[in-house]
Amino acid sequence: MPAERFVEALNEQVANEFAASHQYVAIAAHYESQTLPQLAGFFYAQAVEERGHALMMVKYLIDTDAPVKLGQVAAPNTSFADHIAPIRLALEQEQTVSGQIGDLFKVARDEGDYLSEQFVQWFLREQIEEVATMTELLDVAERVRDFPMTLEEYIARERPGGGRADPTAPEPAGGGA
Ligand SMILES: [Fe+2]
Ligand SMILES: [Fe+2]
Question: Residues with Cβ < 8 Å from 157, sequence gap 6 or more?
Fold first, then answer.
């Protein structure tokens, strides 16, 4: 079994990933209600990705005979000043998660838990992409601030965040169902 401190921290991160997923659903629903379907679709897909991260962590706990403890998930933010505010919130969220994953890595290293350290490495790498995707989207959104339909066209054309399937990604619990 992984180090006890790591198991505790990973269970907390499962809740953080579900909270991120929850927030992205809230953002997507907000955009859908504003009839901005490309932004909505982008954030619904991000929500599924975050849920996937949570399930990869659950699978690791199951495979290493560690207890799975699903904690509480806070209510997401649902009121936004304008159509750019959710993207700014998303970037802040990804930066926060990068810090959380870094802390998780440190627990594994401090505990001398090499397998867990290796497990967390994929998520560290993934965060580079996640932060970059949101940074780019915010850049474009601010550049075309008064023309949300131009932002919609950009997303339809460039498919931000729609990278290739990553064969090195850890397996999720339930086999991705
Ligand atoms: Fe994530
Ligand atoms: Fe993310």
Answer: none
